[in-house]
Structures are given as C-alpha cells and as structure tokens.
C-alpha cells in the first residue's frame, strides 16, 4: 500500500483538502501502477517548517511503497505532487522536498508475522 505523508507550513483552514487528497491519490496510483483503493494520503498543515532559512510556504513529503518506485517513477511522482501543492496551496515547486522509501514485501511480511507472534504470546 503506497502511503504519502505531506507536511506543510501553509494553513489548511478554508482549503478544499478533499481535492488535494483526491488528486494526490489519483496521481500516486496512476504513476506507481497500484489501485487507488490501496493508496493512503496524509496531509498536515500549519507545521513549523523553515526551508532555505525562510518560513515562506514550503512542504515536505515521504512516500512509502512496497515496490513500484525508482528513478523515472520518483521524478514523475515528485513533479505531480509538487504541481498539486503549487496549484492548491501556493507552495512553489522549488520549496517542496519528497523522500522515497521502497519497501520490500518480504521484509514487511516478516515484520507483520513477528508482530502477530508477539501479540499471541
């Protein structure tokens, strides 16, 4: 399940967050090639962020996915999310940073099995 966490120093009061969540979900699913039903987007506003020494509108994101990430895909994802943030929140593309985590499925399964074993004892 791809999960995109976005934090921004822009206030979300009065912002149509549903449109941001919908567009981000659609973009992530399409670019990674996973069903929208598996994509999670978390959006946090009014987070204290300084970028380049200023507190002008900025955003930071982390995208975690089990497979599907890589050079070209990451560039497309970064451009798509940056465009959404610029259009919807007036965050300049140059003030957005997106970090990618490509998790291997078997490591997640091992972790889940370990957690299940702990809860059973």
From TrEMBL:
What protein is this chain from?
A: Macrophage migration inhibitory factor
* Matching SUPFAM superfamilies: Tautomerase/MIF
Which protein family is named in the record?
Answer: Belongs to the MIF family.
Q: Extract one GO cellular component term from the record.
A: extracellular space
One family name in Pfam for this protein: MIF
Q: Which GO terms describe its molecular function?
A: phenylpyruvate tautomerase activity
